[in-house]
Structures are given as C-alpha cells and as structure tokens.
C-alpha cells in the first residue's frame, strides 16, 4: 500500500513538474513578445525620423519616397508626411488612436483610411509605422530554435487572438541574445504566405531599439518588394500640435 | 369661323418670307429646348441604367453588425426578415439576388489589379450566369467552387488566359488578410471605363474567404419590373424592415419638417456613404460616435437615393434651358409684334373692306391671332422635326469606350428621352406668348373704323 502511495505521489509530482515547466515555457515566449513590444515602442518619449522607401515593382518600376515620421506611442499617434516625390509632396497620414486620416494637399481634404491598408503603394502597412503590439494581438502556438544567418534565434509561431488583426498567423525569428526581431512571415487566414519582412539592422536609441533598415517582400506578387531606410532618428519631445489636422494643413501652405 | 381660318392661312401664305423668318426663329427655340430636354432625360435614364448595371439592381438592402471592438462589419446572417419585408411587393419585383461582395486584388504572376467580386449562388441563379455577356470561355459548368469570371479588361491587364489560375487577395469582413486560388473560366464585357467592374465567383467559396458561413450574404439586390415604381417599392420594403428589425435612417432628398436638422442629415449621409461603400465591396468600418445596436441593422438604398445630386443637376440644366427658351421666345415675340404692326399698316384698306362688308370686330382680331398661332404652330412642328433629326444623328455617334462620357451613355451612344408633357408645356408657353405678342396689333386692327380705314393711303 505504501508502495502504491509512493508511486502515486511520484507520478503526481512528475505531472505537476511537467505542467509547471510547460506553462513556464509558454510564459517565457509570451514574455519575449512583451519584451519585443517594450524594446521597440517609445512609450516614454516621442520619436521622429526620416524614412526613405524604395519600392521595386516588376510592372511599375522603381519608386522612391522620402517621408518624415513623427510618433507618440503612448497616445497611439503618428504622423507621416511625404516629402518626395514632388507629385506627392505634402500628402500626410495622421493616426490618432484607431483613426487614420489621409490628407491630400491637392483637394485640401482629409479622408478616412485603414491601418490595415498598404502605405502609399508600398509593401509596408500603415500599422508597421506605429508601436509594436505583438503580445496584445497574438498568442504563441509553436516555438523552436534555429539559426538565421550568424544569429541564434527563437522561431515563434503566432496566432491572432481576435479575428480583427490584419495577419491571422505570423512566424517570427527573434535573436536569443537581445530579443530583436530579424524576420517576420505574415500568413493569410488560409495560411498562405503573404509577406516576409526582414529587419537586418537596428539602431539603439536610448534604451530602445528601432530597425534602421526594413525590407518587405510581397510573397504573392513576384518580384515586388520595398526597402525602408531610417535616418535622423530623434527621441526629443515633439510639440503636441504636430499630431493635429491643422498642422498637416499648415505645413502645406 | 371657317372663313376666318381660311383668311388667316391665306395671309400666312401671302407673306412667305416673313412667315419663314418668324417660324424659323420659333423653330430654333423649340429645337434647342427639345434637344436639351431630351438630352437631360436621356442622361438621367442612362446614369440610372449604368448604376443599375454596376450595382446589380435598383433597390439594395445591406446589413451591418457592430462588434465588441466598435468595428462595424457588413453581413446579413438571417434572410427571413428581408423575405418577409419584400413579400407584399413581390409582384413588382423582376428578380432578387443575394450576393456577397469583396473589393479584392487579383494577382497573376507579377501583375495585379483591383477588382470587385460578387459571390453568386450558381445553383439558385442559373439565369444569371446565362445572361452574362460572355466574351471568351464558358459558364456551362460552374460546379467547381473555385471558378471565377472576370471582366475582359481585367483579364487583359493581367495577361491571364481561360483555364489559368489566379490569386485573389482580400480582407475578411472583420479586416483580416486572406487569399484564395481561383480558375478563370470566362471573361465578360462590362463598362470598365466607369472605374467599376465586377467579377463573379461561387458565393460559398467567397464567403469562406470573407470569413462568412454558407447561407450568409452581404447585399440583397432587387431588379424591378418598372423603374418608375422604385420609390414606392423601396418605401414599402423599408417599412417592412423597420417593423421587424433595427434599420438605418434613409437619406431622403426632401426631408420633412421634423427631420431636417443638420445633425440628422449628417448622420444619414454617413449611413448613406457606408451603405454605398458596402455596395462597392467594403466590409468593415469604424464605429466611432455611433450609437451601438444589437443584432443586424438593415439599410435600404435605391438608385433614386443615389441619384439625388444627379437629379438636382438635371433640374438645374432644364431650368436654365427653359430660361434660355423663354428668352429666345421673348426676342422672337418682339419680332412678331413688330411684324404684325407692319402687317396691319399694310392691310389697312383690306381691314376696312372686311369691316365694310360686315365683318365683326372680334373676327378681325381673331384673324390676326390665328395668323400668329398658326405661324407659331408651324414653327413648333418644324422645330420638333429638326430636333428629331438632330437627336437621331447625334444618337448614331459612338464614343470611345475609354471616354469618361461612358457613364452618361448607353452602349457608347448618347440617348435622348423626350417626355411628352415637357413638349406640351413648351408648346403651351409658345402659343400663349405668340397670342400675347399678336394681341395688341390684333386689337388695334379690330378697333379700326371701316370708312376711315378705306380712306387711308400709304
């Protein structure tokens, strides 16, 4: 009888240990997502930079854009003003919470657009320019370890928590050393690969990191990709007036 | 009376040049106003026809749900409410269709194109497939759920051939990215130059890509037997929907005294824009500053609702046209008055003779009035004939399919719709002005004393 009790106790202990280990593992991966969000979001400072976007489209050729980006992650606000090419100069995308407005200086009017849409015929989405919210939007459904180039990485499979997130499934390659995302594969609801994003270079800004080069490859349209280079990064405080419609109108006068 | 008519006719014939000039001026006025009225009438009809072809019907019912996140999605999950609302007016309906709709990106190799795609239940809508203007391919076998029919212009741009596979990238009704494989089975002709063209796919497969289940749909399209009943049928269905479920306020062109506040109008316009976007294939919207609701909220929109601004524009054109017509007539009538003054001077002795042999004053006056009336009538008939010829010739001209004018044309041609009431109104205005122009000279002629008139020499 004692033996049976001992065996049962051992079995229970092993089961509890296995379960604790598993949940600790899952918790770790969720923590990694939180770390990524924290590492690349600027919640205590503002953020501004100049981005150069070069889109290669096999049908439309090469298109270069230079834009000024202003972010205030703590309020979910951003403003992107197009400076080049001349035909698009003055066009702006102003985000305040879930609202995103597009300003056209030709008609001098604002129109509603969606964060889920691509930014001005590039392969980047409007949402790529805001704060990271991986932990809020996704749960980790699978994980493995591997190498990406010379980096040791965690490979995480993510599933959207709700049916309102743009990409229902994602795969992330994250450096083990400092939890920087090197590569992301975005999948459709039917689990078809839609887009692959590469983040080969990061810039350290204070205690935070921001990708200084981003490459977005459209996996459905052969040969279509956009490279975004980020320069003149600053975390200095921005005037509140920047994140207003009147500012967007004023810079176009 | 018969003699008076005869004399009036004889006088018209006697002064052919004058009659020709006066009648010609009147004919020109009638020509302008008739062609203008015909043009605006045709324009309105063509825009309605083209809208009807683009959206697939004349009355449209859409449904929307509000999610916990505050997002509005376009979906109808229960068709019983609509079926019951439509029942009382089913005799007025030619056909009704339940479609899903996506604004998608069609991809073939490195080529892409934006395309609206309608999900059709091919088993229910067998006639719909056979009524499509097929350019290439066949719609005989649509059993494979992945078949797609594309506008020929889209297929050309993509460089895709019949039997080849294409990808369709779209957003689910809740805004998630999704992709489906399709096989092109046929291409159809459509009015692509209007900026809106439609492809067709199996509703169940499209629903699965849109995140909807079989049996659900997004737009209930109604084709009427007669477009003239659009408002009454629309009102009846809307009343039926309102009785059974939550409904969006309709945008009316003439608000009543109780509902003409700016706020209400602005909200209605927002609803209208959302309904319109749903018709175009957009599935989700932000619900900021909108009162939440339970279940499905129905929205009804008719072509006439969409045509409000077009109708107003046509009315303005018609009013300006009528103004120009009246101005032309007034100028002509000054000529008529002067001509009749001259005529009376020329015919003083003749008037004296007629009065001497016993003709009454009223009869003398009527001769001149009838002369003016017949001249105007002859001018009007000539003007109508000339207008008919002009409209016939212009309506034979085919405009390029890439022309922006296509939206106002029917099969690339301008059409004219002449409304008999409008013609009658124009003729009445013309007749009254002619009689008015001739009234004073005629009155003066009737007041002449026979002896004095006979003594007069010029």
What is the helix content of chain B?
A: 40-55%
Determine the most extensive contact between two protein chains.
A-B, 27 and 24 residues
Give the termini separation of chain B: 30 Å
Q: Tally of extended strands of chain A?
A: 13
Gross geometry of chain B: elongated
CATH superfamily of chain A: Lipoprotein localisation LolA/LolB/LppX
The H/E string of chain B reads HHEEHEEHEEHEEEHEHEHEEHHHHHH
The proportion of strand residues of chain A reads: over 45%
Structural class of chain B: alpha+beta
Work out the helicity level of chain A: 10-25%
How many distinct domains of chain A?
1
Low-confidence stretches of chain B: 253-261
- The 3D shape of chain A can be described as globular
Order of helices and strands of chain A: HEEEEEEHEEEEEEEH
Strand order of the largest sheet of chain A: 6-5-4-3-2-1-13-12-11-10-9-8-7
* Biggest β-sheet: strands ordered side by side in the sheet of chain B: 3-4-9-6-8-7
Structure description:
The complex is a heterodimer of chains A (253) and B (458). Chain A has 253 residues and is α+β, with helices and mostly antiparallel strands. Helix content of chain A is 20%, strand content 46%. Chain A has helices at residues 2-40, 134-137, 245-251, and strands at residues 47-57, 61-72, 77-84, 92-96, 99-104, 109-113, 138-148, 151-160, 169-175, 181-187, 193-205, 208-218, 225-234. In chain A, strands 6-5-4-3-2-1-13-12-11-10-9-8-7 form a 13-stranded antiparallel sheet, sandwiched between helices. In chain A, strand 2 and strand 3 (77-84) form a beta hairpin. With 458 residues, chain B is an alpha+beta fold. Chain B folds into 2 domains: 1-51 and 310-455, no CATH class; 57-79 and 94-225 and 249-303, no CATH class. Chain B has 14 helices and 13 strands. Chain B has a 6-stranded mixed beta barrel with strand order 3-4-9-6-8-7. In chain B, helix 1 (2-14) packs across helix 12 (361-396) and helix 2 (16-55) runs antiparallel to helix 13. Chain A binds chain B through residues 57-59, 98-99, 112, 114, 116, 160, 162-168, 186, 188-190, 192, 194, 220-224, and chain B through 67, 69-71, 107, 109-112, 167, 169, 171-172, 174-180, 209, 211, 286, 288.
